[in-house]
Amino acid sequence: MAFIVMNIFLFFAIFIICFLNGYHRLLTKSKQTQEERICEQVIDSNRLYLLPSDYIIDSMDNDTLYHIFDKYVNSYQFRCCNVSRQGKRVGSGKYICADDRFKPSSPCLIYSFGSKFDFVFENAVWRSFKCEIHTFDPSLSFEESQIPYFVNFHLIGLSGNDFNQTKPEIWKHHNRPLRKVWGMQRLSTIQKVHSHKKKVIDILKIDIEGWEWDALPDILQTGSLSNVKQICIEVHFGFSFKHIIKNNGKLSLKFTSNTWGNVSIKNQLKILKRLYETGFRIFMYRTFNWGSLYIKGRKISNLDELSLININFYK
C-alpha cells in the first residue's frame, strides 16, 4: 500500500514539475511573440519601398531621382528590436542593431572608415562590445592626435582603386593642415593586408564625405561584403556641396555642378539597389536638414545616415 501511495505521489510531483516548466515556456514564448509583434508594427507603419529597375532609373530626370532616393532611404526594410546609438546623436556616432542574434560578441571585428581623429564611435563600441577595432583615415597627420589604446589606426583611405592621391579633394573645412599625399586602398586589399579576408566584420562604418560612391562598386564586385554583418554609412546623394566661410565667420553651403564621388546620380541610385540585392536592409535612417534642398516643392536631404543589416547571415 505504501509503495502505491509513493508512486502516486511521485507521479503527481513529476506532473506538477512538467506543468510548471511548460507554463514557463509558454509565458516566455508569449512574451517573445509580443515583443516581435511590437517590432513588426514598426515595419507595418512604413511600407517597404523598392527601387525601380535600371532601365527605369535611366529614363528618369534628376529631380525625379532625388524624390525616388528620398522615398527609398526614409523607409525601413528590416525589423530590429534593439536599435542602439553608439556615440552621441550629433557628430560621428552611428546606429547599430543590438538584437542578441545581430550584435557583436567577442571576439569581434570593427572597421571604421573616416575619422579625422574623432573617436566617439570607437569609444562607444569598445565600451559596449570590446571588439578589435581598425580605424582608417588618410587626411590628417598623427601630430597633436591622441589615439585610444584599443584603436588600430591606419593612415589609409577607402577607395575603388589602390593608389596614392597627390591632390586630395576635401569638401569640409578643417582647422588642421591636410596631408599632401593620401594612401588609398580597396576594401579587399585592406582585408588581405590585415589577414581579415575570411574573418567576419561585425560592423563596417563608412563616413568618407561622398567618396562612398567611388568605393562601393568595387566592394560589391569583389564580394568584400560577404562577411560583413552590419554597415553604418553616411550617404551623400546627388550634386555635391562645399562649405563656404562668410565674412561673419559662419559656414554656408554652396552646391556645385559635380556629383558626389564623381558618380552620376543615376549610378548612385543603382549602387543602393545593388546593396539591397546583395542582402543589405535598412533598419535605421537619419536625415540631416542642413544638407537639404527644395525640389518640386519638397524638402529633400542629400545627406543621410543609413544603418543596414546583412540578412544572408541569418537565413
Could you provide a short overview of the structure?
The protein is built from 7 helices and 16 strands. With 315 residues, it is α/β, with parallel strands linked by helices. The chain starts with a helix and ends in a 5-residue tail after the last strand.
| Overall pLDDT metric | 86
Helix content: 25-40%
- Describe the biggest sheet? 7 strands, mixed
In the sheet with the most strands, the strands line up as: 5-4-3-9-10-16-13
End-to-end C-alpha gap: 57 Å
Oligomerization state = single chain
What is the SS-derived class? alpha/beta
Q: Classify the beta-strand content into a percent band.
A: 25-35%
Radius of gyration: 24 Å
Care to describe what's here?
The chain is built from 7 helices and 16 strands. It has a 7-stranded mixed sheet with strand order 5-4-3-9-10-16-13. Strands 6-8-7 form a 3-stranded mixed sheet. A hairpin with a 7-residue loop joins β1 and β2. α6 runs parallel beside α7. The longest helix has about 45 residues. It starts with a helix and ends in a 5-residue tail after the last strand. About 5% of the residues have low confidence.
